[in-house]
Structure formats: C-alpha cells, structure tokens
Amino acid sequence: MMKKKRNSMCRRFCIVLLCGMLLLETAGGFLSICLVQAQEGKTKQENTVYHGGLQENMPKMVDLYSSTGTESNWTLTENCGVQFHAVTEFNRFELYLSNVSLTKGGISLALYRWKNNIAETLAGDALASQTYERPRRQEWLALITDGSWEAGEYYVVFRNLQGMVAATVATPPLEQVRSYEQGSVFAGNFKCRIQYRHTPNQELGPLSEPVSSFAVQPSTWVATDGLGRTLSTSETTGSVREGKTVGLFFHTWHGNNALRGSRNITSILKEHPEIQNDYESPYWGDASTTPTEPPRFSKTCWCCWRCSRKPGRTASGRRRFLLCCPRLTTKT
Prior knowledge:
Helix content: 10-25%
Largest sheet: 7 strands, antiparallel
Radius of gyration: 32 Å
Structural class: alpha+beta
Oligomer: single chain
Distance between the termini: 129 Å
Order of helices and strands: HEEEEEEHEEEEEEEEEHHHH
Strand content: 25-35%
Number of helices: 6
Shape: extended
C-alpha cells in the first residue's frame, strides 16, 4: 500500500514538474517575442524620428539649398564641400556647375559618412566617388549608386579641381545644410540636391555640432614678402622661450566675402559700448568681415594703407611699405 502511494506521488511530482517546464518554456518564448517586437518597434521609431512617415517606393528629389534664395556664382577652391542629414535611403547626389573654363576644367566628387568633423570624416573611406574631366557649364554632376545609402549624416567633398570651376551658391543658407570652403562654414549653400528612394514627410534631419580639432605647429610657418624678406625660423631664433609672445596682426583674404557684406566695428562700439566683451551679442551682426573703419580702397589695399600709418613709421618707411600693394598710387 505504501509503495503504491509513493509511486502515485512520484507520478504527480513528475507531472507537476513537466507542466512547470512547459510553462517556463512558453513564458520564455513569449518574453522573447515581446523583446523582439520591442526592439523592432524601437528600430522603427528610430528610423521615423526625422522623416515623419514615408510614401514607399515614390522617389523624390530634395534641394540642399533655398530654391527661393538669392543665387550667385562661386569659384570653387580645393576641398569645398557640403554636409547634410538624409532622413531615409537615397541613391543620388547632384552638384550644379554654373561655369567652367573652356580650355581646361575638371572636378571630383566624393561621398563620406560624417564623423565628428571634416578631418575625421575625410580620414575614412569614401562610399562613392566620381571624376569629371571635362564637365560643361550649367550642368548637374551626379554621384549615383545602384543600391542605396542609408539614412544619416553625410559629407560630399569637391576636389582635384582643374582650371576654373564655379558653382552656384544660394543665400540665406538652410539650417539643415552646411557648406564649407577650406574647412570653414560660410553663409550660403552650394546648389546641390539628393534623390530619396521614398518620399519623406520631413525632407532633412538636424545636423550634429562639429567637433573642432586643431594641430597648430608655428614652427612650420614660413613666408616671404614681395621685397624678398623672409620670416625667421627656429634655426635662427632657437626654441620656445618663456615670456616671449609673437602676434600676427593681419592676414590676406582668400575667400568670397561679398555674400554677407561687412560691418564697421568702430560704429558698432560707439552705439553699443557695453558689448565690447560680449561675443554673442546680436549687435555684431553676421557679416563675414568687420573692418575698424570704412574701407577707402579694396580690402587688401585698406589693410596696407592702415599698416603704413602705424605710429613710429617714417615717411620713407610708409612709401616702402605701400610698394607691396601695387594698386595704391603714390598720391594715395
């Protein structure tokens, strides 16, 4: 009798154990399903943060500039580029050339995934590149892929320039697009566009703030002026010495500063002296150049004239200094 009871209890225990294992397996499978669904939902949510919904398989061309803005020609220099945030898959990037030299003209386009800043971005591998040896004026140049590039931030660099190559720049710039010249952002957008594979409700996503990094090596700075005078190097001056400071008082301009005009610092400070140490004050404006007095000649000539009038410079010294700027006559 006792043996039968033990066998019955064992059978019941086994049955309960099996039922428990089945319940655990079912619960684990259900939990896995929930986790997968949650992850899919999270991924889907991440993909729809910026585009706000898609019309599937309906391609759309989106401008990376203000089509209602003011347009002007901009002669390209090496390593100009544009940064943008695609909100969904795209398979085409285009740049509009407004003018190209007739005898010799060439340009290369290369697409990179954006990473912190231009230096880190260009250190990576290009996703696509295309060289145009004889582009025509008023023509769209394209980077195309048979597949697609996924949503995210990108940078397209223009390089290997040959001859004169000019693009169109539109102002004011879009907040979601940055255009660069020689590594610096300027107030305008190159006339570019991208083609999405699907039509988004919101065309462009926000840009991340660039992380600046500088590798300053003053010992490599060398220069020779028009009179053959050469800056001293470390071989002459020796290594760094405490208590010694070197300052650069002006430099020449190598960019197009006409888009935003200029402001007069002297006049601004007369009207708002309280902003002298306030870099963020809106009274400074957003001009690209800010002379201390109104220019009387061209910008470069104005610098030469001002420097020639430095206290302590003799009349003969002023004449020798002005020889560096051929557009300044003896009378001026």
